[in-house]
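Quick one - inputs below.
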Amino acid sequence: MSDETAFAQAPAADAAPIVTEPIRPGVPKVDPILIADGVTRQFGGNTAVDVEHVEIPRGKITALIGPNGAGKTTFFNLLTGFDRPNAGTWTFDGSDLAGVPAYKVARRGMVRTFQLTKSLGLLSVLENMRLGATGQLGERFLPSLMPFLWSRRESEITDKAMELLARFKLDTKASDYAASLSGGQRKLLEMARALMSDPTLVMLDEPMAGVNPALTQSLLGHILGLKDSGMTVLFVEHDMHMVQTIADWVIVMAEGKVVAEGYPREVMADQAVIDAYLGAHHDTDLGTLTGQLAIAEEVGISDELIEQIEEELEEEAEEETEDATEGGSK
Amino acid sequence: MLDWTFLPLTLNQIISPQTIAFALAALGLSVHFGFTGLLNFGQAGFMSVGAYFFAITATRFGFPLWASILAALIGATAFAFLLGIPTLRLRADYLSIVTIAAAEIIRYTVQTPDLTAFTGGSDGINGAEAGFEKLNPFPDRVYKIGVVPYTNDDIWVIVVGWVLVALAALFVWQLMRSPWGRIVKGIREDEDAVRSLGKNVYAFKLQALIIGGILGTLGAIINIIPTSLQPNNYGTQTTFFLWTIMLLGGATTVLGPIIGSIIFWVVLNLSDGFIGILAATHVLPLSQVQQGPVRFIIVGIALMLLVIFRPQGIFGKKKEAHFSV
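Output:
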């Protein structure tokens, strides 16, 4: 349960202000680690990303949110060298990163994970972890033939890998093929693997997608853990509740642009952001009849459908009074 | 009279230079495909390039043996660069198209009349083995293995060939259990994942292409020493034999391609012999001309059955089998 206590305390621990100027899209940060300027990417005539100016605060957890197709993942790909922009520059830790190939971006301490998990299923969990390590001479062709040159580093790497695996509760799986892990465990493995290189900025593309609620809790704990050990985290997420729980700062993208940013509470409360980018009914649970009714009434679908839902609601209410144990769950 | 001599001859196929050559080239192919995931459909091209560099420098320029071998290795490396630089940045399938085409281009180019002075045209090149046979330590007499008599030169190339196979197997085995091997195995599955961990994927793919190509070249040299260099021996048929051999033994194993080569040639010889017998006794309605292609039909069917029912081959682990092609 240590995970839960970790994120109960976290927001309070960040007393240092992130910005001093009035909050607006592209506001300068007190201590930025990543600064992007004029980054645009077009696919044909379609502008997927058009970010004028954005800064990511150092040592904080920043959430990048926005509707599907807002360009969040494309922006991620551009920043990490997996895609090339049509224009734009960005600096990481003061050094220019535009045009730097993906593998060099990673070597500079900016490591990412992927929306569709890329754990390597045909390698063991431990080999996956070792792959993330740096400074292994045995990765070069000629030295690889002479194990005495790299076996010491290899055992250091293995120790570190086992330590991280233990932290992510995957140590018992170390010798299994990664393909045998569950979806959630693969997410954990990918995150642990990214940490093998001691990055300064960890970029997580939808870390919670497809993960069950119990594992989400521990994932959240791990992300907060990254911040505690001095790393900066930038992550893409759709679940607003999670963003509110762990993010120190939120950047909202829509149609390729940064349309809003700010402290999570304020951004979430911003009615314009909510309506335009999260959907007017983001708080409505579509799994319930009352939720469906509210939407049906507003959208103005046929009266028949509305009546039907109302009838069902009444029936349900009757059932509930008969069977008290079911109350409220449906 | 039925001709049963193919039966004892088949045993000699186990150690023949042809088996050695295909074992080496298939091992190279497993570095490409089995371990790194590179779809090379032009391994015959790598063999051909190396063989021509070896034979031309030895016979036309009088290079000593070591220099000819070096030239062959340089040739294979250059060929890997030529194919790899434009294609390895693209999706895997581009490499397969380019390699199969390049191998055919080479096969036709060496046969053009204008190059006959160097390449010997469609007759190929004889006599490239002189430098190799000069080093032969075996006394000149007849050596009998089974029913087959061997000359001292035959024995020499067989011994060197198998030593080479053992060294190559050791080399690939060590390579693949090293951190280098870990990276290429990562690349075969998802190169973006490996890239995101700070590895220069392109450089590793190019290295793998060169290493596998060099193994193919060494195989080709062993192949031409006891016979001669024939351009038409390095067509697509050779490439598909190599794929069958590799998949038969197990693409992600070191022993697989070697044992696969032995099994492949033994089975091919046996089926050839039995089809001959069946045709002679009129059990199969085949003419002598028709017998030849039948064995290729058998190879094709075997390859299909293998991929469907045992994609990991004889020695491979089921969990490591990969056909994301």
